[in-house]
Amino acid sequence: MIQPWDTSIIAEVEKAILKSELGLTPMNDGKVIRINVPPLTAERRRDLVKVIKKMAEETKVAARNIRRDANEMIKDLKKEKEISEDEQFRAQDETQRITDDFIKKIDTLYTTKEKESWKYKDASTRHKRLPHHVAIIMDGTDDGPSSGCVTGSLARRGGSFRPGNRPLLP
Questions:
Q1: What DSSP state is assigned to residue 132?
Q2: Does the pTM exceed 0.85?
């Protein structure tokens, strides 16, 4: 159940959940949104892993686009003779190193989330309880789900948040 502070944003929250591609169908009664979370079958887990992989790939593309923009800015500085050729190559190498570090972090996060999705594969024999709910916690601002969520960056992309777990991206 999702109960935003400001009930006027319920429609926006509902749209974000529908766009999330997580297979969740929200039910809105005007004050709260109820979500029936399907059981975590092997097929459902595979679907969730696909969503995680897609988010990771989109994030890698975004990081590479930022690298491209940074390199273009560095080249423009060189053309305007604000930096030397050595400084240009040093800056481009540093940009590449930073990009590589972020892509490694993205890959690590993806691998971790993929393993987490299979963590309770045999929960019935280990007597571990699976979470039975998904929560989006609003902070009370009037900015709507795109910025008012604890996981605002995920809401802008239509993602979700499960209490106790970190979002895919920091």
A1: -
A2: no
